[in-house]
## 1
Amino acid sequence: MFSQIDPRSPIPLYEQIATRIRVAVAAAELRPGDALPSVRGLAKRLRVNPATVVQAYRELEGDGFVEMRQGAGTFVREIGPALRTRARADQARRLVRAVLEEAAVLGLNGQEIMGALQSELGEKV
Amino acid sequence: MFSQIDPRSPIPLYEQIATRIRVAVAAAELRPGDALPSVRGLAKRLRVNPATVVQAYRELEGDGFVEMRQGAGTFVREIGPALRTRARADQARRLVRAVLEEAAVLGLNGQEIMGALQSELGEKV
Amino acid sequence: MFSQIDPRSPIPLYEQIATRIRVAVAAAELRPGDALPSVRGLAKRLRVNPATVVQAYRELEGDGFVEMRQGAGTFVREIGPALRTRARADQARRLVRAVLEEAAVLGLNGQEIMGALQSELGEKV
Amino acid sequence: MFSQIDPRSPIPLYEQIATRIRVAVAAAELRPGDALPSVRGLAKRLRVNPATVVQAYRELEGDGFVEMRQGAGTFVREIGPALRTRARADQARRLVRAVLEEAAVLGLNGQEIMGALQSELGEKV
DNA sequence: GTGGTCTAGACCACA
DNA sequence: GTGGTCTAGACCACG
């Protein structure tokens, strides 16, 4: 579940780790109250520096997804509707920025992406 | 034509510049053989570092869009059918579908992505 | 009396335990000479590590509130007038004034602090 | 302005740095668009590791106070009303947690702080 | 054992 | 020059 990480990817290691956990939470593989792997344990398994895992966990904590408790571990938070909305918006923004960067490399601008998105959503309505 | 650049965008300045020129070429505002603005002139107009414009031009040269001739300037090259308008729309759609798949994995719907995209593009206006 | 402990609070568990006992002493629920619950018994009841209870008791011993006797247990000591209810209210007021000053420096008003305090305390209920 | 940092304080260095900048922004010493000191420059001046300054700046970025732009620097953000509300709530929460921790050390519980705050605010109304 | 913080120093992308 | 990321390893507080 946490075994796939690619050090050669342009995506920062800590982002890859954070994304895996976001997906696991979204898929309900990790439920509120569940403990995440320990910082050192996951670092060892992924063969990365513990500080890198800490960076991933801190990002998730900032998003309100998890809670780090000294001496106890890191746990998936019970989140209310208000926080959930904010967390979802954060995730959507993250995805959009990523696609805009990719688009720029390919020479596409935001309006073109917007147009494609509209027609894509329109088709499904 | 080259007046819109946003230093606050998450997209690197040189990518923004390169994109504008690609769009201009695709839209036939710039035709094969036409000269691009001089590096220093464009840098001054956009209030960016000349090195940033050079980086944009180098990327375009690497893509085969333009040709930099020592002492003469930078010129639009002949372009094949690969990057015409239709092809651009295809690329945009491909990106959009990819991001929608990612979003679905995270439990986000198209409307949330649309909202994030609008606010991201809106900030630049 | 010792049943309310919140592992999600930002306040360390051992501080929460020590606080409850200080309050009980101040409220005269525990009188000088009374025995505190045994370390293991309290740890089991609160579902915390015995070492955590020991840490709480040690802090109270350091403050002169209790006395740990080898093989016998932990007992409430005679307490002076310094930590009576009135003194406690004074301390609380001093802390509150300090935080309100800090808040003012940051441009926050008392209502905002009140709101944050309520939500912080509310989460524990 | 950024010269006072205390390595012996129990408050983490990065928190001390972040707080100074929050205060400077609240006091309008730093206005939207202003550049913060460079990571390396501030680190050298304060005699701390650049990573420590980065941690402070990242926290501020997470709060929406500043924006870090690769190759350009770190700048105070122009923030809208929605973000401002959230940022203020974040600050209030931070202060409240700090005072609750202090209170716990002194043996005071949240209700006592709440009571003192209510009477303190009540007196001023 | 757990996470929290900090240092020293590396390499990379961007302006 | 700027920030972005990562490593290796230290010491501390908490359970």
## 2
Amino acid sequence: MKKNASLVDVARRAKVNISTVSRTINQTGKIGMDTQERVLRAMRELGYKPNRVARRLRARGSSSFLLGLIIPNIQNIFFADLARGVEDVAYRSNYAVLLCNYDEDEAKERFYLDVMQLESVDGIILPPIHEEDPAVLQVVRNGTPVVCVDRSLARGGLDKVEVDNHLGALRAVEHMIAQGHRRIGLIGGPADSSTGKERTRGYKDAHLQAGLPLKTELMRFGDFKQESGRTLAHELLGLTDPPSALFVCNGLMTAGALEAIAARGLKIPRQVGIVGFDELPLAEVFNPPLTVVRQPAYEVGKCAAELLLKRIEDRQRPTTSLKLHPELILRKSC
Amino acid sequence: MKKNASLVDVARRAKVNISTVSRTINQTGKIGMDTQERVLRAMRELGYKPNRVARRLRARGSSSFLLGLIIPNIQNIFFADLARGVEDVAYRSNYAVLLCNYDEDEAKERFYLDVMQLESVDGIILPPIHEEDPAVLQVVRNGTPVVCVDRSLARGGLDKVEVDNHLGALRAVEHMIAQGHRRIGLIGGPADSSTGKERTRGYKDAHLQAGLPLKTELMRFGDFKQESGRTLAHELLGLTDPPSALFVCNGLMTAGALEAIAARGLKIPRQVGIVGFDELPLAEVFNPPLTVVRQPAYEVGKCAAELLLKRIEDRQRPTTSLKLHPELILRKSC
DNA sequence: CCAGGCAAGGCAAACGTTTGCCCCCGCTTG
DNA sequence: CAAGCGGGGGCAAACGTTTGCCTTGCCTGG
């Protein structure tokens, strides 16, 4: 149980006061060149590393080098990519990341939000659980920098990074229509999530533009989980006049829909076409390869972390909101 | 920038000393019932939450409620599942998890190991970068509890949770042989990783058991990344006497091999069979569905976290090492 | 020659806990 | 009646930093 060297040890060795050591480390205050030399040497000799905990305790609200990231579920590849983006830029600036999964559970979100504050993180990145998230607003009021990703908050005037969900859905469904599909089933997301709503809006607008009627019986809404994709696809494909193609609003539900299609022995794209939101790991080698809307998840995380770092440096800077473009990847499933 | 209530505030409100408050919270020391009541009420009224940073600073080596998890890459679904397992049991015990990706990069691993110690985490879970990992050994010597997952350390006498890689590979290749394959290509992992070695050993033992010769030209070794899976599959399938089936030693490389197979227009399983280590998201709905060796990733994380929590409570307890069984999921690709 | 200024660096408080030590008081025991 | 004891709770140090303020000595301008 060897203890790390502390400021005191370094100070003793360099024959200066601890404040001098602190100041040479942080480049704050006036210290003579020769003294700095001595201090630096002592640090090197002792292998000194500043204690992050003590630093955070003292220096409330700056330079604690810890970022919080709260996401629904790391098992969702979209969020894994996003997390990776965050971590990479954090690492480059010597920040570490406290990662939590809240599972769309408000109690859990609240718990983790508390943890983040009690850990005095420098800032938090998260997709709010819904558009009016009082817990998040509270955190913001406390003065902790927050950046929203993927989903956004109605109020609060926060930095945010989103994907243009409307555009992505619009392009996808336009393409489906261009392929000759007239009855397109929608497997949408929850109506109270901004992503769910926007994608549905894209689906509808594509129909409107093409002068196609919207049929309620072709529009179903799930919870972004695989199970609901399967169930809803079965419902749609079991209709007496089933859709000739399916537009599925996220990756997990797409996997579910694919299950249903396989179970019914339907051939893609001949008997049923499918386009899903989110790139999937095996999509390219799937048989047939899957046409998807790829979200730039990594970039979302990267941009969010960059924004957060900037805000930590300058809390007065005007808030910026980024909208990244998804990409329709044309393959063979529709 | 409203500050949280502190011990001092609670003490003032309950008209007691801060030590009394601390002791009622931690159930340490003798405090009268009525005093406890007063303190508890004051805490409730002020919405007091103990400051985790201060607590960690003071109480070195216990109850700081933070676990460290260092993994190669969260984008690898195996580690995402594992991370989720860790987080779920951590959450249940009010622990938070500091997650870092080290990308098989020793400098990065070292950096994060430092961070963990400087953050005074209660314990660390990680797959060591290789079997003799001096940085990890150093951390152990410093007195921080460590649990190895997936891979293990040659020395150190640590708690660990692994998957029976040898068994998994053995069963898979046995099955391939039972299907009539006599020339089975191996796309293996790095020779200096325990997982890579064990799986290769399983491949070899299956051949030995069946009295089949090992052909060097059929055994290739990659780095567990998709790219190398593709390249090596191309090499193997381009042989003048190519293998009739491929055994691929992790998920990412399996995806790569599938790319190569698709590029060559080969039909699975008629022209080439394939079995991969790791379950893949779309494996079940793939055409044909993929036969894989499923690793219980979530359980590995779960067990590791449980072991770590136990060790944090009692540092003297004998070390235990778990070996979880993988499962051969028979589908149609071989 | 002196006041004022500036560079260099020391002193000590503060961040919010935990914890060893001590004190007080009332009761038991011999 | 004195000594001992134990329950209840206060005091203050300590964890390792950062930082406001102060001191010192030297230099410069008037």
